[in-house]
Write a structure and sequence with these properties.
The chain is of the alpha+beta class and about 260 residues long. The chain folds into two domains: about 90 residues, 434 Repressor (Amino-terminal Domain) (Orthogonal Bundle); about 170 residues, Beta-Lactamase, CATH 3.30.450.180. It is built from 15 helices and seven strands. A seven-stranded antiparallel sheet has the order 3-2-1-7-6-5-4, with helices on both faces. A hairpin with a 3-residue loop joins strand 5 and strand 6. It is elongated and about 65 Å long. The termini are far apart.
Length: about 260
């Protein structure tokens, strides 16, 4: 089979997957298909996938209206089957809204991150814990590593070097499939403006999936030294959004949390 024999539907599946920064294996995991099935879809060897398969691909890739309609039209041209886009629209859940909802209904300090680690939403406990009222009030898009590498914020973290090294390594691992995206390249240029980021990133080598949590300490202007343990929840297999909660890391911090009503 030559590339001229591959259908528009197959080409679009591959194109949208790549644009959204996913491997064939990641798309397979998110849609509960086999990697071989996804490969056959993209090479045109599967010529009659079910509407259910197409809808799962749309959900997994979070395709916007124009992208969905383009894929549906190609699917109809390939199979002669129609997909009710209005019915699908009513079942889709915006993962960003879900992330925000869960963060704001969590008693512990928490925030959510998108797949590139831009901070998406905060709850009041997290804003108070990290003393970022002014930052949040501005409403600007902030990256987690920008926050950690900011010279003013650095002073609040005890053992900053270990924390920063850990976060850089985790970031490189979690975004390893996104490095071709224009938004990733722009972010990388921004982060490299921090000399300490350049230094740590040059020496970082992700050896495997990071441990799910770690402990670090923050110096708060009113609460004193607080020991925190991270707890991360990933909402989908794609890591489109994740929620990071900060739970007490020692008895002293547990007592502080109780006093704050967290």
């Amino acid at each position: 089979m030559t590339i001229h024999d591959v259908s528009d539907f197959a080409l679009l599946v591959a194109q949208f997957r790549q644009q959204h920064g996913m491997s064939q294996g990641q798309l397979a995991q998110a849609t509960r298909l086999s990697r071989t099935y996804v490969y056959h879809l993209e090479t045109g060897q599967r010529i009659n996938p079910s509407p259910h398969v197409v809808q799962n691909i749309v959900r997994a890739l979070e395709l916007r209206h124009e992208e969905r309609e383009k894929l549906y039209a190609a699917y109809t041209a390939l199979t002669g089957q129609f997909i009710d886009s209005e019915q699908l629209e009513s079942t889709l859940l915006d993962l960003g809204e879900l992330a925000s909802l869960l963060v704001h209904n969590t008693s512990y300090p928490a925030h959510s991150l998108d797949r590139l680690w831009f901070l998406h939403s905060w709850n009041d406990a997290a804003i108070m814990l990290f003393e970022v009222w002014e930052l949040v009030a501005k409403g600007d898009q902030v990256h987690l590593l920008s926050l950690v590498f900011d010279p003013q914020m650095r002073r609040r973290f005890h053992g900053w070097e270990n924390l920063a090294r850990r976060l850089v390594t985790d970031f490189l691992y979690n975004t390893r499939t996104l490095t071709h995206l224009p938004e990733y390249k722009a972010l990388w240029r921004h982060l490299r403006e921090f000399p300490e980021f350049r230094r740590l990133a040059a020496a970082a080598y992700p050896r495997g999936k990071p441990a799910p949590s770690f402990v670090f300490q923050v110096q708060h202007s009113e609460l004193g030294r607080v020991t925190l343990r991270t707890a991360t929840t990933v909402f989908t297999g794609l890591s489109s959004y994740s929620m990071v909660s900060y739970v007490p890391g020692d008895q002293q911090t547990l007592a502080i949390y109780r006093r704050q009503g967290w």
